[in-house]
Amino acid sequence: xxxxxxxxxxxxxxxxxxxxxxxxxxxxxxxxxxxxxxxxxxxxxxxxxxxxxxxxxxxxxxxxxxxxxxxxxxxxxxxxxxxxxxxxxxxxxxxxxxxxxxxxxxxxxxxxxxxxxxxxxxxxxxxxxxxxxxxxxxxxxxxxxxxxxxxx
Length: 152
Known about the structure:
The protein is mainly alpha-helical. The protein has a single domain (8-18, 27-143), classed as AhpD-like, CATH 1.20.1290.10. It has eight helices and no strands. It has helices spanning 8-11, 13-27, 33-47, 50-57, 62-65, 83-96, 108-117, 120-143. Helix 3 (33-47) runs parallel beside helix 6 (83-96) and helix 3 (33-47) packs parallel to helix 8 (120-143). The chain is globular and about 45 Å long. The two termini are 17 Å apart.
């Protein structure tokens, strides 16, 4: 498959600059890189973004996801995730599936669980990371970005 056009984030250089700042900020909070990669993969799986799924599982960021990547789609049943990762993965699903949920897209019970594991800066980073993943999933789907080419 060939992309319809270059990825919009590469057409407008200011976008790449902004994304680099976001990545730097998210990584400066002490939030584990593994957690960031796990939620990136889960949101990308939900959205069917083959380019981002490839990047998370096979691309240059795969090592950051650790040994748990194989189980992300079954995170509820897989024994390898800790409570903090489970809360983050649940947040990724809730934020990604806003249209599928009721008016309380992120339930108070989930938020309370998240605050047991993450401080405000880490929650900001996690939320922005998930939103950015959804942003790129939508860009990639629109231009039909082939797996194996994004940011490689």
